[in-house]
Amino acid sequence: MPQNEGIQGLARWNFRTQHVQRELEPQDFINAATVLIAAGPPRIVSPGELVGISGADQRLQATYLFPIGVVENFTLVSNRQLQILFEIGSKRQFYIPGRVVPQISLARTLFNGPNILRALYAYYPQKFLPAPNRQVQLTQFSPSSMSTVGQCPVAEVPGYVDFWMNLNSDLFDRPFGLLMILKNDCNRPYGSIYLENAFINNHQVTVNASSTLVAEGTTVQFERVVPVDVGAAAVVIREGAGTSILTQ
């Protein structure tokens, strides 16, 4: 049996010569260099609003999305509530699924540019920001009409220019969104998700005398994960390779 087919049944399982799945090449693995995080509006009407649906060459031409660089750590956690129901007369139990509460954490290095609070709200229309911030323009994937986003003026200044630290500002009472795109080492799309209706839960800046860099981090809670079609292709395997490993 070729060694690249993986396990095709317990009777033919040889842990000395086989991988559990097919033989993986180095370019098959997803790594931090092939993941992109971008901030955008709170919601998408459909996956086609942010990524084109007419041809793979157009699927990554996103609008009013701002790539966030110098991110060192990104963690996404989804917690589902489970209610356990016991009954008299039995030692078994029932599981009743509840709501899902997702959140993310971002760790970033502070640099001479937009800090993390500024970057996350890059989509917010310039005309609604306090006067000192109206001239700040962040790099975006492609031009778009920011004035079409329905918002209201910000009363309390979140910060100036690129350094926003006032989490008490009413700007942060408005939600935002995050796009995450993953590719493999061959620059082919693997998958993408959009995190809708996100709010900043906390923000911290760490200064250490023994470190040459200033660290910045935030925790964000959001409503839901929306899968986005980026034209990822399925892995082609031989016919019958999906046979259950319980087949003798």
Question: TL;DR of this structure?
Answer:
The protein has 248 residues and is mainly beta.
Describe the protein:
The two termini are 16 Å apart. With 248 residues, the protein is mostly beta strands. The radius of gyration is 23 Å and the shape is globular. β8 and β9 form a beta hairpin. The strands form 2 sheets. Strands 1, 2, 3, 4, 7, 8, 9 and 10 form an 8-stranded antiparallel beta sheet that branches. It has a two-stranded antiparallel sheet with strand order 5-6. 4% of the residues lie in helices and 33% in strands. It has one domain: Pnp Oxidase, Chain A.
Proper CATH architecture: Roll
> What percent strand?
25-35%
- CATH names the topology as Pnp Oxidase, Chain A
**CATH secondary-structure class:** Mainly Beta
What are its keywords?
single chain; 248 residues; mainly beta; Pnp Oxidase, Chain A; eight-stranded antiparallel sheet; two-stranded antiparallel sheet; 2 helices; 10 strands; 33% strand; globular; disordered C terminus
Structural topology:
Elements: E1 35-40, H1 47-50, E2 66-67, E3 71-86, E4 93-109, H2 116-120, E5 159-160, E6 163-164, E7 176-183, E8 189-206, E9 215-221, E10 224-227
Antiparallel strand pairs: 1-2, 1-7, 3-4, 4-9, 5-6, 7-8, 8-9, 8-10
